[in-house]
Amino acid sequence: MTSTLQTQPGALPARPPLRLGLTLLHLAALGTLGVVVLPLVIAWFAAGVGLTFLLGFGLLMLTGLLYAIFGLARFEIRRVSDLYGLRVAPLSWRPSQQPGFGAYVRSLGRNLANGRMWAAFGSFAISCFAGATMLSGLEWMIRLCITAFAPLTQAETVIGPFGMDLPASQAPWMLVLALLGAALAVAMIFMHRAVTVGIIGSTARETELTERVRTTAVQREGAMRAAELERTRIERDLHDGVQPRLVSVAMTLGLAHQQIDSDPEQAKALVAEAHASTKSAITELRQLTRGIYASVLDDRGLDAALSAIAGRSHIPVQLDVQLTGRYARHAEAAVYFAIAEALTNAAKHSRASNCRVTVRERANGQAQPMLWARIEDNGTGGARIVPGGGLDGISNRVLAAGGTITLDSPQGGPTALEVNVPCAS
Predict the structure, then answer these.
(1) What does the buried/exposed string (b/e) look like for 364-379 if buried means 16 or more CB atoms within 10 Å of the residue's CB?
(2) DSSP annotation of 353
(3) How many other CB atoms are there within 10 angstroms of residue 391's CB atom?
(4) Are 168 and 157 in contact (CB under 8 A)?
(5) Per-residue pLDDT averaged across 243-251, rounded?
(6) Residue 311 burial (CB count, 10 A)
(7) Are the CB atoms for 328 and 423 separated by under 8 Å?
(8) Tell me: the pLDDT tens digits for 20-54?
(9) pTM value > 0.70
(10) Could you please report the per-residue DSSP string of 292-326?
(11) C-beta of residue 45 within 8 angstroms of C-beta of residue 62
């Protein structure tokens, strides 16, 4: 079984020269396409409104127009996000939640009121206008460049801007006007970028904020579940371990108190038994507090804490830790407890004869380094993440720290658990 929790990185933007060339091609295509599409949309809308009262046929046309505009808006978002490397969620149609014609009409109303769709369609229309203007500027530039070389011919006059007849001797001055046409084309390229990124990029910021809220909610839920599981574990350990032992100590001391005068030797034996039970209770309390937080993490760091875990493990552990220094407290704690719980599970359930633990600091192209750990055993496999289980506790701790886990445990083994936790040195 393989279980992975992770996020996908955004697209990488193209290099600036390549992006300018791609923008020019986009505008050339949109300038040609817009001459057909935009008038068709306007005519479609006018025909739909005009035929609305003709047996409702116009309403069907307007419904089809809504789907067409949605398609153009979805295309525009995808086009701009791919061109400029924006991390934008695709436009999604809002379907009806219930069957029936009334629910379908309400879904049309929800999509008609989708501001993101209309913003993207407006971006498409502006891009078509910018493309048509850019093509006009390029055409102007090419014509004037050809006109500027008229003195090389035998012509006495040339047709200049706006159809004016000019002496051929003045034709070279047309190169200055040709530069204005080139400047207009370049201006449309940069205007297209500013406007489309401003419109579509606003949805990118909205997507980023939504993703941050979702991530924060997942981390909060993981922290709450981890705290609840930890509280339950502490209550169970106290109730099943330390509490009965302390009750036994109290009863033994009570018996010793009753026999201290009549049978001093028996009383001494009972006191010795109570003393041994008290030391066992202290040991259990130390183990319990170590499960809450290992003080060795603060004193000596993650490497030393993991060495202590390996030394206490019931199965042989091959430890391979290569770290450059100290890391954020929550990151070290998450990795420490993930490894500790994984080794405990391996000893209890996997019937493994050895285990290997590898810990590294990795960049992986992230904004901050990651603490990466891999725990492998040669057990029987078949591990699953079940609510309230040890692996569920690992998952909650790691999610609360903003990390990810990957579990690979096929039937028959082996089992491998990988943990990635963001950290700051």
Answers:
(1) eeeeebbbbbbbbbbb
(2) S
(3) 20
(4) yes
(5) 78
(6) 9
(7) yes
(8) 788 888 888 888 888 888 989 898 888 888 887 77
(9) no
(10) H--HHHHHH-HHHHHHHHHHH-SS-EEEEEE--S-
(11) yes
